[in-house]
Amino acid sequence: MKKVWIPITYIIFIILIIIPLIRIFTGAMGDGWGGFVDALSRPEALHALMMTGLITIVVTLINTLFGVMLSLYLVRAEWLPSKLKQLLNSILDLPFAVSPIIGGLMIVLLLGPNTAIGSLLNDAGISIVYAFPGMVIATLFVTFPMMVREIMPVLQEIGSSQEEAASTLGAYSWYTFWKVTWPAIRWGVIYGVVLTVARCFGEFGAVLVVSGNIINKTQTATTLVYQDVENFNVTAANGVALVLAAFSVGLLLLMEWAKKRKEVH
Amino acid sequence: MNFKFRSRWWSFGFRSTVMLYFILLIVIPIIGIYTQSFSLGWTPFYESISDPLAWKAVLLTVKLAFIAAIINILIGTMIGWTLNRYKFAGRRLLNSLVDLPFALPTAVGGLMILLLLGPNSAVGSIAEKLGFEIVFHEPAIVVAMVFVTFPFVIRAVQPLLEELDKSEEEAAYTMGATKAKTFIQIIFPSILPGVLSGGMLAFSRALAEFGAVVLVAGNIPGKTLIASVYIYGEIESDNSQGAAAVSILLLTFSFLILWIVSRVQARRSSK
Amino acid sequence: MHIEVRNLNKQFGDFHAVRDVSFTIEKGHLIGLLGPSGGGKTSILRMLAGLETPTSGDIEFLGQRVNDLPPQERGIGFVFQNYALFKHMTVFDNIAFGLKIKKQSKEQIKKRVMELVELTGLLGFEHRYPHQLSGGQRQRVAFARALAPEPQLLLLDEPFAAIDAKIRTELRTWLKELIERVGITSIFVTHDQEEAIEVADEIMIINKGRLEQKGTPWDIYKSPETPFVAGFIGESTIIENIGAIRGFEEAAAWQGTKALIRPEYIEIGKPGEIGLASAAMEGRVKQLHFRGSEWMVEIEVGNAKLITYRSLEKEVLHPGDALSVLVHRAYLFNDNDSWIMENKLKEDPMPIFI
């Protein structure tokens, strides 16, 4: 059987993963290196990549901070009744089950210009939907569980005895966290960061709805690809897509590396 | 004592902030969408979801997502098995490539499929000559869904295969069972929970998929318009109540699946 | 450190883990908390450490109530069951952890750590990580780490549970000596009576959350206060029908009274071998088991079964041999009371019987 399964596995990978990757590459280079550079050096492309980068940085920072704290609370906190912990724990996964489009819609419904909060903020001169803050919120919603799901198992596995040992030796929570807990969860956090980054710059549906896809203002790399395809400008789309794909492959390598480190530690 | 007092205020502040963040970001939006869809009462809700275009889109999505999940269960189980059981050149590389669809932006995934299967591509033109079309038709949507949900079953099956007690299998061989029989009677039952929960997750992700599908589906209302694209259209045409109504149909469905998966996993871990 | 605990209670939801436990511990003593697993020993220890909050009751260190003091401020050292060493720190850093918190100078820390490294016999291992050490070495590190900040009270939770049986005895002696040398008040939890008897100055027997008895190992062995203690410590056989045992006939008059008989309460010999023949009864060897340094003999007396040991120096018995059996004393108990009774016929031999 071995002789059959291995070739079939290879064939599936080649058709489903490898050929498409190559195709993006040849597509982007269809008009030669110059075409690729032209596609990327369009002002809207540069702006879109910058937006994607900004969102990724902001979201990753916030998500890491809150993800680490929430995991600590969900695993360790004694002030949360265990029933409530279970409930929060299952709610945590909901963003995985929600279509990104719906995720975006939720934010528009809550904070859009026609809502109470939205118009209030609008009067104050702050716009959320169709602007940067809305896009950040949408991406936060989508990436929320990733960090927590990476850290919680690590925390559960190491147990609380090292932290208790630190407290009997006189260490307070802040010191204990940095000296004892953090070194143990560090690689889990890094893995979570890589996953969050991947999801951030790849996010499309939620951002498309919330951003309004306004060129040179709220357009991100993925929504630019979408717009280029809709405008039958496939080579240009390929250029941006190639950058994104290359970044993904790079992240994938990083993920493999982080995974290995995580297993060692 | 002063220090203790200060740290108590700090931790109180941290706790409230994190919990508030959690509620504002996750709980409130989900409650919001449910209330919004009923904001104009029961009748408009009913009208929104009984619009033929709406329920056709939902049905189409469910059908295609189901097909994609089945395909993934078959090839996912096989690939998981091959990657875990056989040693061959390139195994590590393939194993890391499994996650690529998760790392790749879905819009890029959609674009890839468009390029490969589109009317101008080799595959597309051959298929056209043979008289069937791929892109802007149902097959392309299924391909996009399979691509996007490719890692789920593999990643759910692999840990179970690793945990599998090899001696159970060997015991079956010593009693004269054939390889095929051993697989069906010994191995498959123990990886079944993984196959099922992986398949369910793939199904729920396929239901929700937007980026990859919107580029290849053609989005012809009533024919290749899937639910999330329909919702997007409703949002674009400023019918947020209608969008919300279809959304909660899809959401409730996804939540149900997620709940079943967590039950299956809870049963597994309690064993 | 002088410790006083009054009416300590701990409930986890519906589960009453510790019930009304009160005791005092004198400075410098080494106390063993002994009892079956799940009996509440560890909960008591964790409450003393401040890792668990009592549901009710008071804990006093040196006459001061410490219930509201967090573990950081109690001045204790705690050795965890699985040692809870900091995995990513070397032996040196593990031991130095508590000293760094006290903001001692680098030289002071180095001096103290090296002192402890030497004391615990870990010299040469100070730059290793916990995963590079054997179980016994890890235990020593945990011990040194707990001692480093010079605590007033050392708490040890099943300190030897995770160690190979062979090294365990060796480590026990080492620990007892070390604690004596340091002179620190210590409490350790164990479910192994041999360990408790060997190591502790005083034993507290805990069962189902209650303190059954507190005393020196010898006191507890000699005069158990409750049937549980009598059954838990040492070997014993329970006899339901006391009337069948010669010299204890009158005890059968108390309804529901049972006897607990330890192997060393019993003297056996070939018929005629025992001096106090009047107090002895007839029995038969049922089984013989070789126990390395002696024989374990299963005896049948009527339909009761007893166990005792016999020296290898004496004549070898065989299954089925007739025996003369003398029960010197028995621990009697019923639902209300328990007491030790000596063989009546032994005390008051009546010549008529000869």
Key features?
A: 265 residues; mainly alpha; 13 helices; C: alpha+beta; OB fold (Dihydrolipoamide Acetyltransferase, E2P); 2 domains; 6-stranded mixed beta sheet; 9 helices; elongated
Describe what you observe in this structure.
- The complex is a heterotrimer of chains A (265), B (271) and C (354).
- With 265 residues, chain A is mainly alpha-helical.
- Chain A has a single domain, classed as MetI-like (MetI-like fold), CATH 1.10.3720.10.
- Chain A contains 13 helices and no strands.
- In chain A, helix 8 packs antiparallel against helix 11 and helix 10 runs antiparallel to helix 13.
- Chain A is globular.
- Chain A starts with a helix and ends with a helix.
- Chain B is an all-alpha fold.
- Chain B has two domains: 1-38; 50-269, Orthogonal Bundle (MetI-like fold), CATH 1.10.3720.
- Chain B has 13 helices and no strands.
- In chain B, helix 6 crosses helix 8 and helix 12 packs antiparallel against helix 13.
- The N and C termini of chain B lie far apart (48 Å).
- The mean pLDDT of chain C is 87.
- Chain C folds into two domains: 3-232, Rossmann fold; 237-346, OB fold (Dihydrolipoamide Acetyltransferase, E2P).
- In chain C, a hairpin with a 2-residue loop joins strand 1 (3-12) and strand 2 (15-25).
- Chain C is built from nine helices and 19 strands.
- The longest helix of chain C has 18 residues, at 165-182.
- The relative contact order of chain C is 0.12.
- The N and C termini of chain C lie far apart (60 Å).
- Chain C has 354 residues and is an alpha+beta fold.
- Chain C has helices at residues 41-49, 91-101, 106-119, 135-147, 165-182, 193-199, 217-222, 227-232, 344-347; strands spanning 3-12, 15-25, 30-34, 56-61, 64-65, 76-79, 153-157, 185-190, 202-207, 210-215, 237-239, 258-261, 266-269, 281-290, 294-301, 304-311, 322-327, 329-333, 338-342.
- In chain C, the strands form four sheets. In chain C, strands 6-7-8-3-9-10 form a six-stranded mixed β-sheet, with helices on both faces. Chain C has a five-stranded antiparallel β-sheet with strand order 13-17-14-15-16, with no helix packed on it.
- Chains in contact: A-B, A-C.
